[in-house]
């Protein structure tokens, strides 16, 4: 339509009135003004048709990103060169070339590595960083691994409790002995996560609590410490498919939108 308006024929210059000459002389200017108008209307049309009113740069979030050894990551993960508004604060990744990213969350110590992610199934595979520090540890320290991303985990979780240097050497029901050189009696056992603590009253100098999937518990109890070491060393899947509050933009992604969040609340953009 725009181009039809511009298709008119001009009479030879000499036969024009002064007024007509002025019009012709200013035609390039009119045309360029016109193209500016056309271009801006197209931009405005694109902006209103293609993106929602609260897009605010979120189209950037549609691009998957790579972080260390992991590729094609998307919401709720962010970090590296992907801005925070494309992810959820609890899922901040620290990317290092040739390594699996660590999950740093929001101002918290890194306790887990992300070793796999399947956005379609909403499954992430994690492993504790340096699991050997929890197995017959050299520098004993009471510790509970409780990163903030656990608030958005849908899987049934149990606490793997590792007890070291226990003064009472008799075996305790529901616990399995750990043979650690240089330590007093040591055991591992399980309770539901989050722990209410005090399930075990054994007098132990060191207790370490690590969240693990509930369906791994039976196998670990039967197969003992080697199985525990295997689980911590290889990692395990956790589901971040959240059907109930707090949802991280479930409805948004299923409708083809992209998700991001600011620090106050999750922002949806369709
Ligand atoms: C990246 O992830 C998207 C969405 O999860 C998927 O559709 C696509 O096939 C993946 N691409 C590659 C190269 O893995
Ligand atoms: C963990 O999730 C990954 C990615 O979806 C999948 O390939 C793998 O089979 C899962 N492992 C277990 C033990 O379920
Ligand atoms: C660990 O916690 C127990 C029980 O609270 C305490 O008695 C012990 O001193 C702590 N051990 C270390 C190494 O801090
Ligand atoms: C920790 O070890 C010290 C030194 O052996 C001992 O006196 C103390 O009772 C132990 N703490 C616990 C909670 O068993
Ligand atoms: C472990 O127990 C021994 C003997 O009671 C004690 O000397 C040592 O200090 C304890 N270790 C820790 C880390 O509490």
Automatic annotation (TrEMBL):
<keyword id="KW-1133">Transmembrane helix</keyword>
<dbReference type="InterPro" id="IPR025287">
    <property type="entry name" value="WAK_GUB"/>
</dbReference>
<dbReference type="GO" id="GO:0016020">
    <property type="term" value="C:membrane"/>
</dbReference>
<protein>
    <recommendedName>
        <fullName>non-specific serine/threonine protein kinase</fullName>
        <ecNumber>2.7.11.1</ecNumber>
    </recommendedName>
</protein>
<keyword id="KW-0732">Signal</keyword>
<keyword id="KW-0472">Membrane</keyword>
<keyword id="KW-0325">Glycoprotein</keyword>
<keyword id="KW-0812">Transmembrane</keyword>
<dbReference type="GO" id="GO:0030247">
    <property type="term" value="F:polysaccharide binding"/>
</dbReference>
<feature type="transmembrane region" description="Helical">
    <location>
        <begin position="22"/>
        <end position="46"/>
    </location>
</feature>
<dbReference type="InterPro" id="IPR032872">
    <property type="entry name" value="WAK_assoc_C"/>
</dbReference>
<dbReference type="Pfam" id="PF14380">
    <property type="entry name" value="WAK_assoc"/>
</dbReference>
<dbReference type="GO" id="GO:0004674">
    <property type="term" value="F:protein serine/threonine kinase activity"/>
</dbReference>
<feature type="domain" description="Wall-associated receptor kinase C-terminal">
    <location>
        <begin position="202"/>
        <end position="264"/>
    </location>
</feature>
<dbReference type="Pfam" id="PF13947">
    <property type="entry name" value="GUB_WAK_bind"/>
</dbReference>
<feature type="domain" description="Wall-associated receptor kinase galacturonan-binding">
    <location>
        <begin position="61"/>
        <end position="104"/>
    </location>
</feature>
